[in-house]
Amino acid sequence: MFTLTLAAKEQIDSHFKDKAASPIRIYLTHGCSGPRFALALDEPTDSDEVLQDSGYTFVMEKELFKQASPLTVDMSPMGFVVKSEMELGGGGGGCSGCTSCG
């Protein structure tokens, strides 16, 4: 199951207002606060699940989608957030190689 909230749709509408819509990849990234889902413009591959919502195409690796589903793309004060029931584990919270970690 996949959901795009109205707030996230409005932000995506604004981004693509004057250009052609591109597929949006949902992927797992790692950083100082631990693993999290992120978004990027990308084309689908044979190993992707292709999801449609509100006129937009989202792509995600099939195995990751199975593990993470259900997913919701929403907005937070910091930008897009992808919510999932998948346990992502704790964050490092103090790595020395990152300029955003104090």
Automatic annotation (TrEMBL):
<dbReference type="InterPro" id="IPR035903">
    <property type="entry name" value="HesB-like_dom_sf"/>
</dbReference>
<protein>
    <submittedName>
        <fullName>Iron-sulfur cluster biosynthesis protein</fullName>
    </submittedName>
</protein>
